[in-house]
Amino acid sequence: MADSTRIDKFLWSIRVxxxxxxxxxxxxxxxxxxxxxxxxxxxxxxxxxVISVRKGAIxxxxxxxxxxxxxxxxxxxxxxxxxxxPESELKKMNAPVETFFVKRDRGAGxxxxxxxxxxxxxxxxxxxxxxxxxGD
Length: 136
Known about the structure:
Helix content is 29%, strand content 20%. It is of the alpha+beta class.
């Protein structure tokens, strides 16, 4: 086994992300930190490092036990990474997802371009401020 491995490979191999491309994209998007510092996909991780991953509204935390590069079965993952995610974060998975409906009078027809843009701006503002679950 290697002394260290790339963060994107490691996150993929312990099944945090379905594809390595997803892991790479999360690193590039600033959703992954190693020991409190933003991590690029090529960042090397070694035993003892603490990784924080933001997927939607949930912040997962893992401690690297053994760095690996090959994808492992779900039952084998605990040999390589320890899940340190607090219970309060895990409860967010079961929380009801807030929906955003715009009340329109019956018979008002489709929204105009201006109204649609206003709704999109409002929705985007609410979405970013709440950091809602994005389905990952």
